[in-house]
């Protein structure tokens, strides 16, 4: 109360107090609530006078705890105690009591449950939006890199095919790097909250996992869409809407795979520092084995490119950008086939569907691995 919090949680603040002091405590809390704060409290054996001070108590003229207990035991609110003692001895008491309980249950489901469910959904949505707002504030900066990239590759064409290929490789690396590092923070940062809420049985681990991953998708996909849309047309890539749509789809595909790997690394290590270190090394390996910088990788280490999602993304981007009949000016006055350009010829663009399948395996495999690691790391 000294730091003037916007939300105040109190656990039985009136327990052990006399009625006068309890009333003063609740009156003070009511004044705090009227000042724009939210006060949530559990209360032990309150009087009806205290109940009338609550904004959300449900009853104003009778203590609801006494009222519900009386009803559940078959005691009418206006009956006298002597009559109840006589009534309790009757043989039909048990049957009437069960009928009353069923009536209370049905009344709750009909009248109170819809209201409580609506309020709970509203609270959960608010918490979700707050968490998403914190998470996506940093991500919003990423989309601002689109115009600089478009200016650096301003209206390049096939006469500068090396530059165009470099832009496509930049797509695969840039939108593999950021989703990976953003996803690493997801589980380690929320681990204390997850352990606490899971220990109280608030929700299933699978519910948390899917909500956490699905909740990130809108901003994870919107930002690369903005980036690619700006830099694609500014960079002078093929002026075809179909080619642009395929390029965007491949980049988004790459984002989902990269995010899955980040979730898996975060769930396995559960440490931000270790996760970012391992991610840096992983992305460096993928960067070098992607097929752009090194075209003659020694055979004993050439297998690295087959585990690099950036390699598959790069191949697909190049494959949809250039056709087999396309040419470029290889020397002054001479034109050569684009497929014979060394950087493209090395990639081998005759197995694009196998590249799609490889990314699909990674997409599913990384996310399954993340869930399994998360479950194994939970206390039993």
Automatic annotation (TrEMBL):
Recorded GO cellular component terms are: plasma membrane
- Its membrane topology: Multi-pass membrane protein
As one GO molecular function, the record gives: ABC-type transporter activity
Q: Does the keyword Transmembrane helix apply?
A: yes
Which positions fall inside the ABC-2 type transporter transmembrane domain?
150-322
Where exactly are the transmembrane stretches of this chain?
165-188, 209-235, 241-269, 276-294, 356-374
What protein does this entry describe? ABC transporter G family member 21
Originating species: Prunus yedoensis var. nudiflora
